[in-house]
From TrEMBL:
<dbReference type="InterPro" id="IPR006674">
    <property type="entry name" value="HD_domain"/>
</dbReference>
<protein>
    <submittedName>
        <fullName>AAA family ATPase</fullName>
    </submittedName>
</protein>
<dbReference type="Pfam" id="PF01966">
    <property type="entry name" value="HD"/>
</dbReference>
<dbReference type="InterPro" id="IPR003607">
    <property type="entry name" value="HD/PDEase_dom"/>
</dbReference>
<dbReference type="InterPro" id="IPR027417">
    <property type="entry name" value="P-loop_NTPase"/>
</dbReference>
<dbReference type="Pfam" id="PF13671">
    <property type="entry name" value="AAA_33"/>
</dbReference>
<feature type="domain" description="HD">
    <location>
        <begin position="64"/>
        <end position="146"/>
    </location>
</feature>
<keyword id="KW-0547">Nucleotide-binding</keyword>
<dbReference type="InterPro" id="IPR050124">
    <property type="entry name" value="tRNA_CCA-adding_enzyme"/>
</dbReference>
Length: 372
């Protein structure tokens, strides 16, 4: 069953589909801390959350797409607990540190195999990643900044509604986290004009500076005058980054890591120090000249992209990020047709760790399936 077929099934059918999968059986075998989840194992809680979603007063007001996103968020929000759960030897308490982070990667992998469209997949993956944030809003030093930040990563309305279902989807005796705490998320989002839409920054540069922690004032109105624009390409090998550049930014000079590896006769598995050093120097030449250019590399990890973006930002460049990802089977076929194809197992490893860019990273962020 592929994504188009699965998303149109009833909730009962989707749950039945999940129960045939190994990641679901792992949840059924995974115990939880009794103080938070006296209802039992992870899968029992997950099914309760799915049911609570349909009981929300707002459920009937949601679009089919929003309902689908919430149902699959429920299915996967704790799916990584079997990978992260640990028992404190002194107290016997069970914790699952960073299960939301690992859950983001898990759901992304499953939806990729189902051929889920890129936009929907990333929406669900980010909801899984941030599903626990509303409950801890009052613990944040800057709660307003928290809801503003999340409004550009997920929809605060969906995050709030899921948090309600997550809280209700457990035995009442274990509900030590009052719903009033969640309501603060809704109220503050509404007050900040970002409950069902992205927070309205004065301009793209104001948003960029906020996320880069270069100017925390939400009402700051920076002057948008840049020295140049850098188009930062990102995507797995074989995704079609070169083709996208040729079609859409054909007039730009390109600093490409693959090209530099070829010049230096460096294999991708060799030490990349000289490659990166030369790439940085060539980027600086364009930046010092105020010349727009494209930087072409896999850039599939946020931390890796961040190092390059920091360099470009230091020269007052406008950052355009373009992430290219066709359907995974198409990507594998495209890779095999390259002059120097990357081993499939390497691509799969990269895909498992891939972190597509978000609005937190650039002045503009474009997603392409490789055909535009």
């Amino acid at each position: 069953m592929n994504w188009e077929q699965l998303k149109n099934q009833t909730l009962d059918d989707i749950v039945a589909w999940a129960e045939t999968k190994p990641w679901c059986q792992a949840m059924a075998d995974c115990a939880q801390d009794a103080e938070w989840h006296s209802e039992g194992d992870v899968w029992t809680h997950t099914k309760m959350v799915c049911t609570e979603l349909t009981r929300l007063d707002e459920w009937s007001d949601l679009s089919a797409h929003q309902r689908t996103s919430l149902i699959f968020t429920a299915l996967f929000h704790d799916a990584a607990k079997p990978l992260t759960s640990q028992v404190d030897p002194d107290t016997g308490r069970i914790t699952s540190p960073k299960h939301a982070v690992k859950g983001e990667h898990l759901v992304r992998a499953v939806l990729r195999e189902l051929a889920c469209d890129l936009k929907t997949r990333e929406e669900i993956a980010r909801l899984v990643r941030y599903h626990g944030r509303p409950a801890f809003l009052l613990e944040r030093t800057e709660p307003t900044h928290e809801v503003v930040r999340l409004s550009w990563l997920v929809e605060n309305r969906l995050l709030y509604l899921f948090a309600l279902a997550d809280t209700r989807g457990r035995n009442t005796d274990s509900m030590t986290r009052p719903e009033e705490n969640l309501n603060y998320w809704k109220l503050l989002s509404e007050e900040s004009d970002c409950y069902d839409k992205q927070y309205p920054f004065a301009n793209d540069h104001a948003r960029f500076l906020f996320f880069q922690q270069r100017h925390p004032n939400l009402h700051y109105v920076p002057h948008e005058e840049f020295s140049c624009q850098v188009t930062v390409m990102a995507g797995l090998p074989g995704s079609g980054k070169d083709s996208w550049l040729s079609r859409n930014r054909g007039d730009l000079p390109v600093v490409g890591l693959d090209d530099i590896r070829g010049e230096l006769n460096v294999d991708p598995t060799d030490n990349q120090g000289h490659v990166v050093q030369l790439a940085r120097e060539r980027c600086r030449e364009h930046l010092r000249a105020g010349r727009s250019f494209a930087f072409n590399a896999t850039n599939t990890m946020k931390q890796t992209r961040g190092r390059w973006i920091d360099l470009f930002t230091d020269y007052n460049a406008r950052i355009e990020i373009v992430y290219v990802e066709p359907l995974f089977n198409d990507l594998l076929k495209q890779n095999k047709s390259r002059a120097n194809p990357v081993p499939e197992q390497v691509i799969r490893k990269l895909a498992a760790k891939c972190e597509p860019p978000t609005w937190a990273e650039g002045h503009s962020v474009n997603f392409s399936t490789g055909d535009s």
